[in-house]
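ARCHIVE CARD
SHELF: 3
SLOT: left
DATA:
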Amino acid sequence: MTYETLIFETTDSIATITLNRPDAANAMNPLMARELSAIAIKCDESPGIRAVVIRATGKMFCAGGDLGVFGEAGDGASALIKEMAGDLHMGISRLARMNAPVIAAVNGTAAGAGFSLALSADLVISVDSAKFVMAYTNAGLSPDGSSSYFLPRRVGDRRARELMLTNRVLTADEALDWGIVNQVVAEADLDETVGKLANKIAAGPTLAYGQVKALLNASFDNGLETQMELESRGIADMARSRDGKEGIQAFLAKRKPEFKGS
């Protein structure tokens, strides 16, 4: 299937979603939100996909929501935004809850919804020239795209409030120091670095990765005993899985495990 605002490709067990509105700074419009939701379903429904990379064409990762579209909608902007946010949120939810880890390759500025999208990823690699800014209140708007959920979990409440209320711009190195990104690289090294990480993830125990994501997503909402019960049930389920059995046997045999993602 061909998409208008995104490029979707799969190579072996790695899916790549590329934001493809470079002339509009990859700003999120209603069509991009719908297409992201559709692709997220495709990834979630494809057990052969064991890693997902989100990247962008052009010089920016994503400038946020397309305010030009909102302005053109006039009094209908609120209804348009509800529809668009609903699609964006369904896409992010499925990516966050699917087994395959999601890697964001941030090639430039991530603002507003672009920052939110990066925050929702499991792992983030950024070029050293990238900037990160919430930006919502600069336009008299409040955050969306999961940022009010993920940002406090990544940086804590105080720093989340600072970023959302003051629109402080973070450099890539500051984002690394704050725990927003995992690694900062030169622009020339981004593709190779992301490719190596994606290949490593795609060769791993995908079901176990999914269990890790589920446990961490729930950890701020549960009490100690509830979370430990989820851990107990999760590790028991993994021990029954094909990869769990392979991992145990490989450890005992002192050999490298060969995970199949099941």
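SLOT: right
DATA:
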Amino acid sequence: MAELPTGTVTFLFTDIEGSTRLLHELGDEYAEVLAEHRRVLRDAFARHDGVEVDTQGDAFFVVFSRASEALAAARDAQSALTGPIRVRMGVHTGEPLVTDEGYIGIDVHRAARIASIGYGGQILVSQSTRDLCGPDGLRDLGQHRLKDLTAPERIYQLGEGGFPPLKSLNTTNLPVASNPLVGRETELAELSAMLNDGERLVTLTGPGGSGKTRLSLQVAAELLDDFPGGVFFVPLAPLTSAQLVRPTIVRTVGARELEEIADRHALLVLDNFEHLLDAAPDVTALLEAGPTAKVLATSRAPLRLRDECEYAVDPLSEGAAVELLVQRARRVRRDFTPDECAAEICRHLDGLPLALELAAARLRTMDARTLLERLDRRLPLLTGGARDAPERQRTLRGTIEWSYDLLSAELQELFSKLAVFAGTFSLEAAEVVAEATVETLGALVEASLIKALAGTRFLMLETIREFALERLAELPHVETLGERHAAYYRALTVTASLDTDVPNEQQPEIVFPEVANLRAALAWALEHDEIEFGLALATALEQFWVFGYTEEGMRWFRAFLERADDAPPLLRAPALRSFASSAHFSGDFELAERLCEESLAIYEQEKNEHGIAVLLHRLSISALEHGDVQLARDRAERSLVLHRRLVDDKGACQPLSLLGALALQAGEVERGVALLEESAALAKNIGWRWWRAGTQSALAEVALAQGRVDDAKCLLHESLELAQQIQDRVGLSWYLSQFALAFALDGDTAKAGRIWGAVEAARAFIPGGPWPRDFPALEQRVLELADVNFEDARVDGQGLTLEEVSSGVG
């Protein structure tokens, strides 16, 4: 093999589409066709100074010193190919590391992944190659997530020709990874085969930091095409109770009940199950309810279920460990070159991925030899884990403790304080609660003890947080810190104005990133018998609970109200009302009505007109559900009178909307529309975006029924924009569904199908929520108008996100 070029190089990967099928079709002729294919490709590569790195079966891995030569070789090869063979190609430029075994690094993985998402006859090109060669002859195919799970890559197509949507991961909820998976080829193949060949429950076991989560994510990515019912990642680490497992799974999948998932050909990745083993029977219930759903779990201990297949995740091989160390080290020091010391570091750290990441961070300020000397001196002393714990687990603990010991006293204290946060946390939260600064947080990021995320948010890995929690418990002011954490998140929640009693503009997007910390604050209140605090916080989240967290909200309200007999009446009454709101949206209308009646009785006893007005509206909905239209109208009208006397626009817009619906139901269309428009106007004036979006949607439904399609589209445009602002994906999906009907009625069935396909794909990944009850009726109307153009576009739409399809509805 010729000497491999170094520095900035361009990789070209190729393989034959449908080679197995061709082998069966061509029989003995396949060998001759394959040989001709190889001759053609090698001739093109040679003419453009390409160096053949590897050939496996029908695939080529070639490297070029110039990006322009790589594109020319790919173009010439495709032009020269004839016959039944169709070859897909991927081109990517980077700066890989060259070792005795060849190229290693992210760029090799990325080039291979780019090729894998294309089709026979197609040449795909990365952004880095396009930047070097210019745009001539390249067509922008947009951003695409690749199966290495790293950040999206903008992909271009070289040359003309129409192809189906790329086979990327744009519709999955699998999280973005910072780097491709390293050294798990055997595990990937074995686990993929197990799940494809009949195993329904596979649990990855091993110590913290061994890479179980990253491996499970990659297996899920590889199997995405094999599970038409969806591949769902369900992170369990932030959960504090086994009771939360079932609703979290249901919400992630977008189902109403766990057993609904059983008949879907879906794969659930349940991550970090070890602290919630009491919820293992929920997995059994899922698997026994139907024959097709499968589960891939990660846990430090097996679930101990009858059909479980345990798969131990071993440390990385030495070669893979070195590659991982080099990748991470080159992120902090680009000139890092591995030597024997690097290999010895990997051996000392037992090839554990987390330990390697922590060690690589130290290569920012020391060379490999110095790092190795420190490991030789210190790690034997740092084995403070339980004596009966696996050796690797104690080694990992030692690695974390070693990294902790290298911090200054100030940073050690901050590191311990940050354990008070659950999930991710913001810069402001760290400053207020833990007295952090940008500089001290940056120092912990550099030490790989916390991770910096998009924007100004941070994450402490769960394995590291366990160690930090031990240090936190040793601090003299630990109780004060927990109180400060709870107070901060209650104050933050108040700013979101999600309580019906608060007249300010609602901003639910404030609390969405803070779910885990809100749970921690509520749990703190319950544990410390701060019942009034907990009731106030749960009530302040009234609107949040109905964005897909209704069951959880109900559990918190029950827990606090059981111990709230002595709570002030004007705290208990809104809590009951908020509890009723969650019960209503969860479908327990009887409970919702009973809670509303109890809340109304307290407000009447306290002579609180605002509370009475709110509850009259809520109970008018209950009356309508019972079919008592007159009682519903009477209660709504009384509510409206009270709200207007109190000059409460937020309160008034609610019964106005109900009265508008009643008027439409009675055939009084003009009056009904006027009432809905007044409700929408009030909602706009007070900044209640969620209510205005829903009311505009109701007006659009009237317009569609009257054949005023353009008017309906105008109304829905605003609903879409508002839903995107407040991150209401349930609403966004519903409004797009209405848009699909509008375009179908207008004769543009292709656009209708494209939107409908995106909605169908996205609903599987949207947390469960209060879907409009008339969705089945709308679906029926849309599908009745479907034609061939609709069905073709529907398939294309399934590869688009809701945001992508929203931008094209104009």
